[in-house]
Design goal:
3 helices; single chain; mainly alpha
Length: about 90
């Protein structure tokens, strides 16, 4: 499926936003009791963190599976976040 360049750019930026959420939630979880109110998702239960990560990785996977018009966009961080999210969700 082909999209306008601007739409593709926005989708890629949104994927990177999801990467940030995934990485932040996992990092906060890994801090355990050392997480503070300054850490995003510090007040979520483990199941809520899993749900948050699952929603974000679902968006990323949908974009990757349904579009092939990414041109030379770098997917290194996106692919790493997918791997991390899948491991976190279990």
């Amino acid at each position: 499926m082909e999209r306008e360049t601007e739409e593709m750019e926005q989708a890629h930026a949104a994927m990177l936003d999801s990467v940030s959420v995934i990485n932040t939630v996992i990092a906060t979880h890994d801090k355990g009791s050392d997480a503070t109110e300054n850490d995003y998702s510090h007040d979520m239960t483990h199941d809520e963190k899993k749900e948050c990560v699952a929603l974000n990785v679902g968006y990323i996977k949908y974009q990757k599976e349904n579009y092939s018009d990414w041109g030379s966009k770098d997917f290194t961080d996106i692919d790493a976040a997918i791997t991390a999210a899948d491991a976190f969700i279990g």
